[in-house]
Amino acid sequence: MIRRVLIANRGEIAVRVIRACKDLDIGTVAVYSEADKESMHVKLADTAVCIGPPPGKRSYLDMPSVVAAALGTHADAIHPGYGFLAENADFAALCGAQGVTFIGPTPDAIRAVGDKIVARDTVAKAGVPVVGGTKDAISDPKEAAEIAAQIGMPVLLKARGGGGGRGMRVVQSVDEVASSFLDASREAEAAFGDGGMYMERYLDAVKHIEIQVLADKHGTFVALGERDCSTQRRHQKLIEEAPSPGLDPSIREQMCKAAIDAARSVAYLGAGTVEFLYNPKTREFFFIEMNARIQVEHPVTEMVTGVDIVKEQLVVASGGKLSMSGNVPLHGHAIECRINAEDPARNFFPSPGVVSRYVAPSGPGVRVDSHCYEGYTFPPNYDSLLAKLIVHGKDREESRTRMLRALGDYVIEGIKTTIPFHQAMLEHPEFRAGNVTTQFVGTQVIM
Questions:
Q1: What is the pLDDT of residues 221-275, one digit of tens each?
Q2: CATH number of the domain enclosing 154
Q3: Which of 119, 236, 240, 342 pairs with 275 at a CA distance of 20 to 30 A?
């Protein structure tokens, strides 16, 4: 078993990994920027190392500094969390070259799924259905407009590398393609260092369904059911749930098989997520991408399966076997609300500052993953995620009402949060009916 893990991340995911390590009696090392010296993950780790100033490129994205911190503290493994270096094949290779175990897939697998164009081609050859679109990278705006006219409007421009909605644009007319291409390409270049783009046929009124997969070095591949991530704003997920409301068991079985086929096609290892778009009317689903890392929303899967996904990552990275095989049953229903330091009444404007009062909800079926505490100064330098509130119930309605109770109990003062948005969303008739699609938040008045 791995003896000491350096967590190359910050915020709630760093806290989550530290707690999983402690459950397995594994030592922990936190790295932090100067902006995060009072963060909870720094306080909880056995050892903490400052790796630079607040800008991510000079701290959490500084590969030599992160690896040097691991070597200097005798950490024999690095867990990247999500974001930052989590899907960086060069970082995974650097870890291996320095004799440090990278807790994630191999560099080759990361490259195979990280380039969305390569990933689409690879899984399509494995028989996984993909959305119609380009097979090669698009080089310039004029070419993009010509291809869009051939595919038919509307189209979706997407960055070939990265994710999280960055470098993505829905384009309704050919006349808008060139300017949208330039905007998306610049955004992708700034976020991922790669301005390469590709194009897909845009599907509206669909659900965003993803399948959690796990794989070990002994040839075992497991799918842990689906998560419904359709409640989005500008391609950013806001609420996730498991299982997806109304999804037919036969479709779930097909999706799980397709996800495992996709993972096998790139010789995947560890925890990953295969994402699909699903049309409830036609019962068709299409592969859109695979994320080679732990997902923000992994707790909803943990709540309905009883599987600790981070522990499984640690065991697999140590050369061990997954604790399960075959079909993993789902129990009850789980919902996760991402609590962001944003003001929903002001178009979700960021709201950094000092948390003057903090009381987390508790009670049956309630889980809070957070790095927040009373007196904590929420910095403006990074993602606005403050906490993840997850609830579990015997069915979707119990889970929904339990979430409303937990949101009402959650006290966060001193900064604005998205709690009021979530309360309004969970009371909306379309959400209660399970009819939310990826376009819903952008077309409805929620608050």
A1: 999 999 999 999 988 999 999 999 999 999 999 999 999 999 999 999 999 999 9
A2: 3.30.1490.20
A3: 342
Given a cut of 90, whether residue 97 has pLDDT beyond it is: yes
First and final C-alpha spacing in the chain = 49
CB atoms within 10 A of CB 368: 18
Angle between helices 309-317 and 11-23 (to 10 degrees): 70
Contacts of 5 (CB under 8 A, 6+ apart): 17, 21, 26, 27, 28, 29, 75, 76, 77, 78, 79, 103, 314
- Which domain, by its residues, includes 152? 132-201
The answer to whether 293 is a known catalytic residue is yes
pLDDT at 443 over 90: no
Per-residue confidence (pLDDT) for residue 190, from 0 to 100: 84
Tell me, what's the pLDDT at 277? 95
Percentage of the residues of the chain whose pLDDT score is greater than 90: 88
Last residue of a domain, one of 156, 186, 201: 201
Q: Which of 293, 367, 400, 402 is catalytic?
A: 293
Angle 433-258-396 from CA coordinates, rounded to 5°: 20
Q: Is residue 38 part of a domain?
A: yes
Residue 295 and residue 273 in contact, taking contact as beta carbons nearer than 8 Å: yes
Q: Which of 218, 421, 197 is nearest to 324 (CA)?
A: 218
pLDDT in tens, 293-337: 999 999 999 999 999 999 999 999 999 999 999 989 999 999 999
Please count the CA atoms within 13 angstroms of the CA of 270 that sit on its side-chain side: 26
Type of residue found at 118? V
Provide Rg for the chain, Cα atoms. 21
Higher pLDDT: 205 or 125? It is: 125
In contact, 341 and 352? CB cutoff 8 Å:
yes
Q: How many folded domains does the chain comprise?
A: 3
Q: For residue 243, is the peptide bond before it cis, meaning its omega torsion is within 30 degrees of 0?
A: yes
Cα 120 from Cα 41, distance rounded (Å):
36
Q: Output the CA–CA distances (angstroms, integers) from residue 196 to 87, 90, 191, 215, 270, in the order listed.
A: 17, 18, 12, 30, 27
Nearest in space to 79 (alpha carbons), one of 39, 25, 20: 20
Q: Can you tell me whether residue 84 is helix, strand or coil?
A: coil
Peptide bond preceding 154: is omega within 30 degrees of 0, i.e. cis?
A: yes
| Contact of 212 with 288, CB cutoff 8 Å | no
Asked whether residue 244 is domain-assigned, the answer is yes
Same domain, 197 and 317: no
More confident residue, 201 or 333: 333
